[in-house]
Design goal:
The protein contains four helices and eight strands, in the order βαβαββαβαβββ. By secondary structure, it is of the alpha+beta class.
């Protein structure tokens, strides 16, 4: 069982539906998990209780993070043959990077992948053909994208046997 920390951003239903319409066509994880920011990537090195205690302590006093998604970028997956299209926040980018780094302290420090850059994002497309992701990004960026919302809750997730299960939710204060 892998453990992760995700945030499903609080955005309008219209914006969520628009993101999901793209994901339904281009993201194989569309039915597995809702649009999200991954803050702690899959790890099997920790027990759920220990991860929960660590994240709870690190999130103490953390205010919600305002975000505005304003562009799409194309990123080659460093581990697999896929390329992705990410929605990336203009507003909230640095706060999400700092939160990610804060969470990867203490017992999670050894899990941090320094060989892969952390880019806060919501994946909307994945494909073996990078040109597919480029076309999706170009289509998105050809319009005035501005999706505002908040990261208000961090979900501790287990991923096992192709199923995502929320173990705990930690509200940002």
């Amino acid at each position: 069982m892998d453990l992760l920390a995700l945030s499903y951003p609080a955005i309008s239903e219209a914006d969520r539906a628009w993101i999901q319409s793209i994901r339904a066509e281009y993201d194989s994880q569309y039915e597995l998990v809702a649009p999200h920011f991954t803050l702690v990537f899959p790890t099997s090195n920790h027990q759920p209780e220990a991860l929960s205690a660590h994240l709870g302590a690190q999130l103490q006093g953390q205010p919600p993070i305002a975000i505005t998604l304003a562009c799409a970028i194309v990123v080659k997956d460093p581990l697999y043959e896929y390329t992705h299209t990410f929605l990336v926040p203009d507003q909230g980018f640095s706060a999400l990077v700092k939160l990610h780094d804060k969470l990867y302290s203490g017992p999670l420090a050894g899990d941090l992948r320094l060989d892969i850059p952390f880019i806060p994002h919501i994946t909307v497309a994945s494909a073996l053909d990078p040109q597919v992701c480029k076309r999706v990004a170009d289509e998105i960026n050809g319009h005035k994208l501005s999706i505002s919302g908040f990261v208000r809750v961090i979900d501790i997730i287990s991923f096992a046997n192709g199923t995502v299960t929320t173990l705990e939710q930690i509200a940002l204060q």
